[in-house]
Amino acid sequence: MAKQWVTVANKTGLRYFKHETRKHGKQFDRYYSVRFRIDGKLYHYGIGWLSDGIPEKVRKQDPELGFEDYCLRLMREYKANVKSGSGAQSPKEKRKLEEARRLAEQEAEAKNAKENISFDDYIHHRYWPDKAGKIKPKTIKNEQMLYNLHIKNEIGILPMKDVNNDHIKNILAGMTKQAGRTKQYALQVIRQVYNHAKLNSPIEKSDWPKFDNAKRRFLSIEEADRLLEALAKHSQNLHDEAMMSLHCGLRFGEIASLTWNCINWSAGTIAILNAKTGSRTAYMTARVREMLQNRQMRNPKPDDLVFPAKTGKKAVQASKRFADVVDALGLNDGVTDGKMKITFHNLRHSFATHLFETTGDLYLTQKAMGHSTIAMTQRYSHMSDDRMRQGAQALEQRLNANREEAGQGKVVQFRR
């Protein structure tokens, strides 16, 4: 049945139709709408049911306002906005603007609350509870240790909005004995808290500590063989992991994640999946192939880890026995600079150094290491002192040969 619109007397532009069954008070409920023309164009907007009443906010401002007068007020508002081309020109636009305004007010209130909460309260009651289950418990424990040692005393009691760059500089000034990486980690914790709160961080780009943590030492062939032999006496598993790094350039995390379906026996390759800079292919040496074949004699399943931890799960880090064996061999005797000490990661650096020394191919070395840029690989060209020395000697021989051909002491005249 078509709606029977009724025009309200003495109220131009306002009309309604009655609900067929629902009542409001003693009368049937009414649905009101308004319409008007601007430059010959008809605008027709529904306002709402009489039973819905006037919005509470409007009623508080004008308690005596009736529903029909409320509808006419909206019509005048829409009409004026259509003429001016600004503001809400329909109930739909009005609802959108009001919703946007409401959300903006909520965001402002939430931001104000976060800005005024102390850094200590936020990190303890919002940041870490939200991170629980999303990051490793060990990571949270490390963050808590850094916070308690280096951050809390400086900014813990301050409201988030009051922490400024001077406080950051004071934190760094109090960490003079800490390594550059530790300083970076402390600033990273602060920055992550501000990112979590969606507030501007007080840390400036210039505050970020710069340090060179790149390993500068590699094992000679003789040292590498001694190390592998010693590791085999203590742990066959650790020996095999070290061989994978020395012969194939794998990071420990890549070794720990390796499964048997990554081994391609016919091609002699190893698929390194989801590595730090993407997937890549490594190639087996004869010794690595033999070692892997010996491990495969246990009849593993394709998805089994090649180097599982004692628990059967993926290992998190290399066994501490590695450091014990290195110390027993005296490889770190007298070495105080961390960049020069032999760690498990040095095995990968030794692989890259010897690969470059053998091939002289920086691009090949980059691909074998899985580096995203050639700049990361260029350090191995600097580390290859023996190759540079050989190059210098070859150049000297060439120059001496040319000198002998020209005659000892002979002066060559050049044209102007």
Give your account of this protein's structure.
- There is one protein chain.
- This protein has 416 residues and is α+β, with helices and mostly antiparallel strands.
- The protein has 17 helices and 7 strands.
- The chain folds into 3 domains: 6-106, no CATH class; 117-207, DNA polymerase, domain 1 (Orthogonal Bundle), CATH 1.10.150; 221-385, hpI Integrase, Chain A (Orthogonal Bundle), CATH 1.10.443.
- It is 52% helix and 11% strand.
- The strands form 2 sheets. It has a 4-stranded antiparallel beta sheet with strand order 1-2-3-4.
- Strand 5 (263-264) and strand 6 (269-272) form a beta hairpin.
- It is elongated, with a radius of gyration of 38 Å.
- The N and C termini lie far apart (109 Å).
- The relative contact order is 0.05.
- Measured distance between first and last alpha carbons: 109 Å
pLDDT under 50 segments (min length 5)?
A: 409-416
**Shape-level CATH architecture of the largest domain:** Orthogonal Bundle
The secondary-structure class comes to alpha+beta
The number of E-state strands comes to 7
Relevant terms:
416 residues; alpha+beta; DNA polymerase, domain 1; hpI Integrase, Chain A; 3 domains; 4-stranded antiparallel sheet; 17 helices; 52% helix; elongated; disordered C terminus
